[in-house]
Structures are given as structure tokens and as C-alpha cells.
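RETRY 2/3 - previous attempt timed out on the joint model. Re-submitting the same 546-residue input unchanged.
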Amino acid sequence: MTSFSEKLKSAIKRTGGCLCVGLDVDLVKLPVGLSKDAKGALEFCKAIIESTKDLAAAYKPNMAFFESLGAEGMAVLEKLRGAIPVDAILVMDAKRGDIGNTSQAYAKAFYENLKADSVTLSPYMGKDSIEPFLDYPGTCSFVLCLTSNPSSADFQLQTLQNGHKLYEWVAQTAAGWGKGKKGEVGLVVGATQTQYIKDLRQLVPDTVFLVPGVGTQGGDLKDVLETGRSKNGYGILVNVSRQVLYASSGSDFASAARREAQKLVDEMKPYFK
Amino acid sequence: MTSFSEKLKSAIKRTGGCLCVGLDVDLVKLPVGLSKDAKGALEFCKAIIESTKDLAAAYKPNMAFFESLGAEGMAVLEKLRGAIPVDAILVMDAKRGDIGNTSQAYAKAFYENLKADSVTLSPYMGKDSIEPFLDYPGTCSFVLCLTSNPSSADFQLQTLQNGHKLYEWVAQTAAGWGKGKKGEVGLVVGATQTQYIKDLRQLVPDTVFLVPGVGTQGGDLKDVLETGRSKNGYGILVNVSRQVLYASSGSDFASAARREAQKLVDEMKPYFK
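RETRY 2/3 succeeded.
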């Protein structure tokens, strides 16, 4: 079976960039002409995927927005699965993490039912909360390391008695959990934190980074690509959500999304030659 | 509107104990006679609730098990809402936490759509990931502090340069987030960690604790109740899942669950006189 890292490298070569389109479907922001309900959300996502499928190495549905639509939202997610190209990476943004038997149930929900390639997870409960996800070959479980929001400083930037910041300790520890497992461990590192990415790369040179926070949140794409790529050059996905999804609120939303995606991939291309 | 703490105190007085029945619905473990699907899961939960409703101060559905059933599982959860008595506390065990606009969507899913009283959240992303949940009056957002699983030691027991263990820092910091907000902040503290609960109570004497890990996981109920109650005596919920749910695998599962719940409440009663 192809490893996650190999699938990612192929997707980057196919599309020219490491663009992950985040599907943060906010009903209030749906373009005119689409109904503000689960049906509209499905149509919207399908149109976005259709117009960007040669540009996006990955898609990242944000579970919160689907959960907020109740059972219908989950049905939308299941239908969406079929719309995502098989050679694109599907990252489920869920930020889960629980005791063993519960994590097993989540792993089943994402890796078996939805056939995702990847899930985001929270590190707070430690190794045994992540391990059930690592039993699935071809997958990558992205553990939160240094997030893009301002309050990431509350705990992630605290210094431990061993001299490391908490996020560095999480990075090293979590990277170790993946050794000898069927699935890989990756890390979520916010694009707003580029002053830390270079040092982080020295700690974990081979680990795949999922980098949210470019665009609306203010992270700089060039800074991220200069410092954030892995040793082999392909261990990175940069997520952009709102800048692509809501590029236009008119009926031209899909072509506007494509234009934004194209711009991003054009900026990325020089780094993946 | 009644505050969460007041509703909890009433529920404890009504039932005689601080028992929270965890609805961890594992299809494999469903008793004979129930179909191993969403329909069976709904029947099972309804029967458990019906037979324990005068004993359980709270019910805690575990999102993972419902999510692993896909859209059908979410529909079960919506139907279950109506089966839970209005004077019992509904805790959604979700362990969510994300950037602001995403946390808002989760808060809507749990506090508006499902009309839960409470949700469990992960602290790793800090204050702005929790704040959207605190806009709902009458609710309590339980932040993970010291969890019941062995790997809780990986990060939660790390000592910070300020001399505090990470879980102590989380406790103090998160308790502060609730000040002046519409919703309360509570803490998740595992029953397997009783050697730490006494000190933790000195740091946050008034904060409500949700304590999982009694029963199958090995935590001792007496130890928890001796040391874990809040200053007013009522700021605690002790969760038991498997010991109650799967007390019998036969058709008498509901009455067997009641017997286990009754035993637990009998042990709790002396502490709430």
C-alpha cells in the first residue's frame, strides 16, 4: 500500500503545489442562489471541488461545520466523500483525542467509514489517545503542535523544566509515536508562527506539517514554504479556507475560487521543482 | 435562568448522588435481542435512561460512538435528547477545541441544536478556543485537566518552569476564563488520579469537576468523594459507563444497569446529606 507521504508527494507533483482547500462551510456565507441548508452546503462543496480538483493536493472538511448541521450534515459529508478525487488527500479536521476505546471509535468513523487519508488530533491526552489512529496503513494523523490562533500562547509556548517549550516537546514526542507504526504521525503548525517553524524543522526534519492560517488569518505563504518544508521537500500541506471558498459571493463563486487557488499554486510552484 | 451549578445541585438532591451515566454505546457489546445498528443503539440507550432516570444526576453520551455510526448515529443522538429528563444534566463528551469561528460552530451544534447543558473540551489551543462556548447561560464547559488514561503523564504531568505541573496550570488558567462569563468552566479530572485531586481542590475550590474513570478503569469512588467535592459540596459529577451499561448482556440489561446505578448512588449518598 502507498504510504501517506508517497501519496502526498504524488499529489504535489500532479497539482504543482501543496495546497489544501479547507471546506469550512458556513451557511451564512454561502453564495447567492444556494439554499442556506445542508443541500446548499453539499452543492457548494461539490462545485468548489469540481473547479479546483487539478489544483488542490488535498481537501480538508472541517467537522464542526458539518456537525452544526446535525444528522443532515453528516450525510452531506458522506456524499462529499465521493466527490473528492481518489488521488487527492482527504484530511478530516476534527481535532479529536480521547481514551483508547473512544479513540478507536473515532478512528473507525474517519478512517473506515469516511475513508479519510488523514485526521487532525489533539495531543493533550498523550500517546494512548493517538495510537488507535496509527493502526491504519496509508494514513497520517496530524497532531496539534503550534496552532495559528492568538491563544496558542496560553499553553503551547510555556517553557518546561527540561528547557523545551511545550510545543517542541509535543513535536518530538508525537513524532516518536509514529515509529514502526502502520500510519504516520504529522504535526499541525500554524502559518502565523513562522518565527518558530525553522527551529521546529530541525527537531523533526522528516515529519509532514499541515499548515493552516495562510490568508484570512494572516500567515505568509512564502515564509512558510521557505522554512517549513521537510527534508525531502514534499512533507507539507498549506491549508487555505476562506480566501478560496468565499472569493466571490455571487454565482461566479466557483470560478473565483479557482482563480484564488491558481494564484496560490503559482506562488507554490517554484518550491516544488 | 438557573445556573449550571444550581441545576447540578438540584439534580444531586433529587437523585441522592452525583452519578453521571456515560452512554458509550459499543454495538459489539449490545445485549442479546437488540440489533447491532443505530436502531439497536437507540433502543438500548432509551432503556438505560428509562431504568436509571431517578438515579442519574446526569447522562454523558460519548460522541465518538455515535459518530462511528455516521449520519444515522447523529440522528440517534437527536432522538435521544427527548428521552433525557429535563431535570437531568446532559453532558456531551466531545473533547472539542478549535479556532474561534470553528469553536462557535461546535458550540452551536451542542448548546443550540442538541440543547446540552455541558460539553467536554480540550485546553491545548487556549482561551480563544473555549470562549465561544462560554456565551451560553446555564451551561458548563468541562476543560480536560488531568485525564484518567495512563498516557495522561506524557504532557499533563510535565513540570513547567513556573513550578506548576501543566495540569495545575491548565486548572488555574481555565478556571479564570469563566469569570464574568454567561457559562461556567468546569474541569475533567480522572478518578485514577486521586493522589492529585486534594491539591487540585485547593487551587480551584469552587470549580465543578467531572470525574471519569471509576469502575472499569479502576478509580476508587470513596477516594474521589472524600477529596474531590467543591467547597459547597455539590460541584462534582462522577461518571460511570461500562459498569452500568453492560452489567448484563442478557435481556435483563436494563434492570441490571439499575442495580449497578443504585449501588453507586448508595455509596454516594452519605456525602450529600
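Chain B has a mean pLDDT of 96. Closing ticket.
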